[in-house]
UniProtKB/TrEMBL annotation:
One of its GO terms (molecular function) is pyridoxal phosphate binding. The active site is at residue 343. This is Diaminopimelate decarboxylase. It comes from Halopelagius inordinatus. The modification N6-(pyridoxal phosphate)lysine is found at residue 63. Specifically catalyzes the decarboxylation of meso-diaminopimelate (meso-DAP) to L-lysine. The lineage of its organism: Archaea, Methanobacteriati, Methanobacteriota, Stenosarchaea group, Halobacteria. Belongs to the Orn/Lys/Arg decarboxylase class-II family. LysA subfamily. Keywords: Amino-acid biosynthesis, Decarboxylase, Lyase, Lysine biosynthesis, Pyridoxal phosphate. It comes from the Archaea. GO terms for biological process: lysine biosynthetic process via diaminopimelate. SUPFAM superfamilies: Alanine racemase C-terminal domain-like (SSF50621), PLP-binding barrel (SSF51419). It catalyses: meso-2,6-diaminopimelate + H(+) = L-lysine + CO2. Substrate binds at residues 277, 313, 317, 344, 372.
Length: 413
């Protein structure tokens, strides 16, 4: 039912009265995460790839949001957890994942991470470990690993919303494309492990304009998988984007799945993918309160109680996030510069953006914070991390409590 599952959800689609009452009840800054929307997003992308492929696996890239409530909802939908660090494996297990539902992808994995994941694998022989360097295979063997191995490939093709999130051509990630057949041959000859899959990830935040690069990338990975042969799966990573701006269009995910199939060609292995942003971005928003308004000769500065420590994406990637005044939506529009309480100029959510001029005490919502929002929050500037409120079945509950000043000093000896 397309009405029940709009393929795009804009910041304006959130219920203002409901968000205002959440801000009143739980105080701000507050992350809101809508678990029902996450489930819708999962079902939509899973259905699209199910229609195009035989038995594909749509995992969840845990790095986008490693909170328990989110993982529980996605595990309930049947999504395996794609974990990029031992800590993510730990959290996925704690959220109820069966180790067999976990795929570990280590990038330059530290010894302690390998010790931990091999320890988990010892009791769960179906767990797949994925590494992107020949010496990491060696390091797994030293730990007695002889299970299901996936090799990460550097496909030499990248895409995404910003240079900093394009991984497909960056040397840090994966075995260089042309070297992969020889590496697979050596691993098969010299180690007990089963090379069951190849993996790559082009980058994050792809929209329509990236789909040619996506098709080229998928085609290249298909060619490599056919050359290597005898694989259970090909994992093409994540990266599917969501429009953060009102004038951007959503991906037609059915068409994307179909194009992926055409680009891939015939393959005697199943397809895996591991979206993060696509599942979560539009399922979250961040509530904040206007603390101060200052007219300057250049602009009007609006100070809110969320900052770059709450949501770092604007500071880090210049990322656009919509801002909506929930209290005074019809106030006269002026160019506003919205920032937080942190002493650096990167702590700015927008510069001279036409928005309704708020009053002190107004509640604002910042859009598309479900992915890489709370997950990248920090305590810099001694800002306790905010509360996170989960919405599910028409009910709101605290998924993570707000940190206190005591939490800031808790680990100090
Ligand atoms: N798989 C691998 C191996 C990845 O490295 C990533 C993301 C994903 C899957 C999920 O990508 P997604 O479907 O979410 O695009 N902090 C940045 C995004 C970094 C993404 C890193 N890798 C941001 O806020 O834009």
């Amino acid at each position: 039912d397309s009405d029940a599952d709009p393929a795009v959800r804009r910041l304006d689609d959130w219920d203002a009265a409901e968000l205002r009452s959440l801000a009143d009840e739980y105080d701000t800054p507050a992350y809101v995460i809508d678990l029902d929307r996450i489930r819708q997003n999962y079902r939509r992308i899973a259905a699209a790839f199910d229609a195009a492929f035989d038995d594909p696996t749509v995992m969840f890239a845990v790095k986008a949001h490693s909170g328990r409530a989110v993982m529980e909802a996605l595990l309930d939908e049947g999504a395996p957890m794609e974990c990029a660090a031992a800590g993510e494996v730990f959290r996925a297990l704690r959220a109820g994942a069966d180790p067999d539902e976990i795929q570990y992808t280590g990038v330059n994995p530290p010894d302690d991470d390998l010790d931990y994941v091999v320890g988990v694998w010892e009791d769960a022989p179906e767990m797949t470990l994925n590494v992107g360097a020949e010496d990491s295979v060696e390091r797994l063997a030293e730990r007695g690993f002889d299970g299901r191995l996936c090799l990460r490939v550097n496909p030499g093709i990248a895409a995404g919303h910003h240079e900093k999130v394009k991984t497909g051509a960056h040397p840090k990630f994966g075995i260089p494309y042309d070297a992969v057949p020889d590496v697979v041959e050596r691993v098969r000859a010299e180690y007990e492990m089963d090379v069951v899959g190849l993996h790559a990830h082009a980058g994050s935040g792809m929209l329509d304009e990236d789909m040619d690069a996506h098709a080229e990338y998928v085609g290249k990975m298909g060619d490599l998988a056919r050359e290597v042969g005898d694989l259970d799966f090909l994992d093409i990573g994540g990266g599917f984007g969501v429009p953060y701006r009102d004038d951007e269009d959503p991906l037609d995910i059915d068409a994307v799945a179909e194009r992926t199939r055409e680009a891939l060609g015939e393959l005697d292995a199943t397809l895996k993918l591991e979206p993060g942003r696509y599942l979560l971005a539009d399922a979250g928003c961040l509530l904040a309160t206007v603390n101060t308004i200052k007219d300057t000769p250049e602009t009007t500065v609006v100070g809110i109680d969320a900052s770059m420590t709450t949501l770092i994406r604007p500071a880090m990637y210049g990322a656009y996030h919509g801002i909506r005044n929930l209290t005074n939506p019809d106030a006269p529009v002026e160019p506003l510069t919205v920032g937080g309480p942190v002493c650096e100029s990167s702590d700015t959510f927008c510069r001279d953006r036409p928005l309704p001029r708020p009053e002190r005490g107004d509640t604002v919502a910042i859009g598309h914070t479900g992915a890489y929002g709370y997950a990248m929050a920090s305590q810099f500037h001694s800002q306790p991390r905010p509360v996170e409120i989960a919405l599910e079945g028409g009910e709101a509950r605290v998924a993570r409590r707000r940190e206190t000043f005591d939490d800031l000093v808790r680990l100090e000896e």
